[in-house]
Amino acid sequence: MFKAISSDNPFISIAYYFFRKIVGPLVRIVFVSKVSGLDNIPKSGAALLAFNHQSFFDFICFSAVAPRNVHFLAAEKFFESMMWRPIMIFTGQIRVERNSSDKSFVHLSVKKHLQKNTLVGIFPEGTRSPHVDKMLKVFNGTARYALEHKVPIIPVGIKGTYEIMSKHDLRPKLKKIVKINIGRPLHFHEYHGNHEDKKICTHVIEQVVKEIEILSGK
To answer: What value does the mean pLDDT of the chain take?
Structure first.
C-alpha cells in the first residue's frame, strides 16, 4: 500500500520546489486568471484550508499559486494511479481510504502535519460536486480537526475548474478562467477541545461553508 512521505522529508521540499519553478508557472499561465487573498495565508504555523470541490484541477491550481506547501487529504485512487501516485507521494499528500471505517491513519497523519506547523488542505464535501452552482452536503471532519488541534480554518472558494474539467469530463479544456478567492482565517477558540460534540462541529462547519459559498459564488 502506498501512503505518503512525511512532510519533513527532504524529498517533499525538492518535489514542491520543482512544482513551483516549472509546473506552477505553466498552470498559472494556462488556467489561472485571478487570485485574491493570498495575504490571508499565514507565513508560518499550522492551519486547515477548506475548499469547494468541483474538479481535479482544484488541487493543481491552488498548489500552483500557494505561497506554502499544502498537504491535501486525497482519495486512495490517486495513490493507486500510475499518473498521480508519484505526485501524491513526493508532495506528501495524505491518503484517505474512503471505503474503510477505520480512519485512524488519516487522523494520525493530519495530527502529525499540524504538529509540524504545516498547512493541511481539505475538501469538506469529500468528493467533486457534479453541479457547477452548488456544493454537496459537507462532512464535519474539518471542524473536528480544527477544534481538536486548536488551529484556524481558512476558507477558499475556487471558480472555473468545473468548466475546465468537471466530474463528467474525460479530458481538461485549456481555459484561463480559474479564480481563487482566499478568505480570512476563521478562529473558533471558544470551541477548542469540543471536537467530540457533533452539534458544535456542525455549527463550526456551517460557518465555514457559508464563507466558502460566498468566495466561490455558490
So the answer is: 91
